[in-house]
């Protein structure tokens, strides 16, 4: 993530039929997956972060993690468990699986603010069943 990260910015996206595996060295790629044991603590501008495109968490559980492992890629997850707690709700629904735009919003907000609480507040909707912990708010 390089460049402007304010709401008024416009992002340019380049597309290519080539795989990220062919475009970047394996040691520069970090595959983001909610199933990783590794917590993303900071964004390294020398790394390439892959945001998966799967949103069906019941059918494809751990698919992104397995895909990354098969490709010998480093994995990481957003620090949701470290800064958020399960909010009481009538459906007892809690999910760390986010849509690509939510992950992008979290990463860009974190890059701009260097604050995981601010980034998670901006990107994790209340419908996911999580809220910032009291310690994260401080």
TrEMBL record:
Enzyme Commission number, as recorded: 2.1.1.221
GO (cellular component) term, any one: nucleoplasm
InterPro entries: MT_TRM10-typ (IPR028564), MT_TRM10-typ_sf (IPR038459), tRNA_m1G_MeTrfase_euk (IPR007356)
Catalytic activity entry: guanosine(9) in tRNA + S-adenosyl-L-methionine = N(1)-methylguanosine(9) in tRNA + S-adenosyl-L-homocysteine + H(+)
The protein's name in its UniProt record: tRNA (guanine(9)-N(1))-methyltransferase
Keywords, in A-Z order: Methyltransferase, S-adenosyl-L-methionine, Transferase
Native species: Grantiella picta
Originating gene: Trmt10b
GO process terms (BP): tRNA N1-guanine methylation
Domain of life per record: Eukaryota
Chain segments annotated as transmembrane: none
Gene Ontology molecular-function annotations: tRNA (guanosine(9)-N1)-methyltransferase activity; tRNA binding
The keyword Methyltransferase appears for this protein: yes
PANTHER family in the cross-refs: TRNA (GUANINE-9-) METHYLTRANSFERASE, TRNA METHYLTRANSFERASE 10 HOMOLOG B
Domain SAM-dependent MTase TRM10-type as annotated: residue spans: 1-131
């Amino acid at each position: 993530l390089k460049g402007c990260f304010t709401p008024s910015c416009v992002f340019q996206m380049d597309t290519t039929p080539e795989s990220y595996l062919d475009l970047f060295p394996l040691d520069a790629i970090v595959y983001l997956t909610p199933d990783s044991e590794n917590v993303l603590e900071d964004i390294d501008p020398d790394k390439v972060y892959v945001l998966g495109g799967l949103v069906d968490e019941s059918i494809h559980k751990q698919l992104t993690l397995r895909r990354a492992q098969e490709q010998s890629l480093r994995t990481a997850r957003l620090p949701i468990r470290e800064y958020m707690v399960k909010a009481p709700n009538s459906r007892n629904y809690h999910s760390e699986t986010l849509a690509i735009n939510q992950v992008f919003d979290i990463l860009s907000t974190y890059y701009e603010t260097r604050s995981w609480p601010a980034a998670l507040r901006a990107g994790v909707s209340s419908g996911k069943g999580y809220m910032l912990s009291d310690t994260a708010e401080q």
